[in-house]
# Entry
Amino acid sequence: MKKILHVCAEFYPLLKTGGLADVTGALPKAQIKLGDQVRVLIPGFPAIKAGIKNTNIVKNVDTYAGHVTLLFGYFEDIGVYIIDAPHLYDRPGSPYHDANQNDYSDNYLRFALLGWIASELACGLDYFWQPDLLHCHDWHAGLTCAYLNLKQSSHHAKSVFTIHNLAYHGSFNRYHLSQIQIPESYFNVNGLEYHGQISYLKAGLFYADHITAVSPTYAKEITTPELGNGFEGLLKTRSEQRRLSGILNGIDDEVWNPTSDSLIAARYSKRKLDIKKTDKYELQREFNLDVESNGPLFCVISRLTEQKGLDLILSLLPEILDRGGQFILLGSGDNKLQQAFSEFVNNPQYSNKIAVYFGYNEELSHRIIAGADVFMMPSRFEPCGLTQLYALKYGTLPLVRRTGGLADTVIDSTDENLDKKISTGFSFIDCNEDGLRYAVNRAFQLWQTQQVWRSLQRRAMSQQFSWQDSARKYQQLYYAISRKL
# Structure
């Protein structure tokens, strides 16, 4: 049995901006079921404090970032440490930026403190509980590994650093080093330095005992110049040292399950797929789409960024709609992309064929996944992706680019794969308009044969991406690290 501390900035269902929260909310639960003692450390953002009310004070601590009260409470069965520092974390909206999407100027301090408190827990800050292993998630927790290295004589804990998205570096000015109590000697190529700045992401990549990526394919891709973001040399070295591996994310069956989902219009299963038509009908009504349409309903649930290939979707939207398809988008982000999708909605030519919802809405995402026929995710790169896993579970066939976790989870409906009865959706290789058009054409083609479409849906819904499987792989990794080091 291991004592595991997850260090993170988001935690589902209390605080979520993306897939990171789904992981940190679900993986600890799965690990607890395997018998490990698992806790989470997170900054005291308003949503976290509001969701975990019955807390006890662990310790009051004076830090380089000011006075901090470390709280402890439970969310369901998961023990959660909360860094209560209102001067740093009591702000509305996103954990990372203000209402105008501007990063908070003191993010260097807010997330350095997260790593510092994590390292203090490893050194016995909580007299009654001391972790054997710190599992750090993304750049927000990356400095944990550097602090552990600084304090290595004061603890026995090991560290795992998980890359959820290598594109976010957590880079800050060098002159902050003294403010966050990191020695100047750590600022070099074999340390925190990245293009003349401090990178919290690189702190995790360089100092962690082991690195994981959230899919096997992404773990390979990030060792290449194309997707390494300048870290490919370091990551290739760590891979050669067998200290980089890929473990695919899972899905929480208690949250995403069409047979028990209370957020959708009608519950269904692969044996009762006809009921899914009710979810489509209600979704069309909700968004004033033509309920008499016989074409497939395409959907996107995503951050609006070029990474997600949304510009490719925009280029093909006229073809999709002119061929009788419908389209729903849920997401927010880049203003230019929002404007481009809005122009389609406001075009009378596409009345009752397209709808958008700008923002984040967890309940609506369930209704869209349940009611749509095709889920689109033509990402330029995708560390894992979780939404395509939800789509598979709901029989909403994923249409994806073959990269990262998308390559590991969706099998294209080629004639050969259909004959082998292994297809679960649609995928393409070339990241361009023609590549996406190939997959869209294939979807329209198979839509004409509903018997084949139903068989694809049932096979998609039969896929298993359990957090229990992922938790077992992490458990094996933790024990291997303990033996190796």
Notes: The first strand starts at residue 3 and ends at 7. The chain has a mean pLDDT of 96.
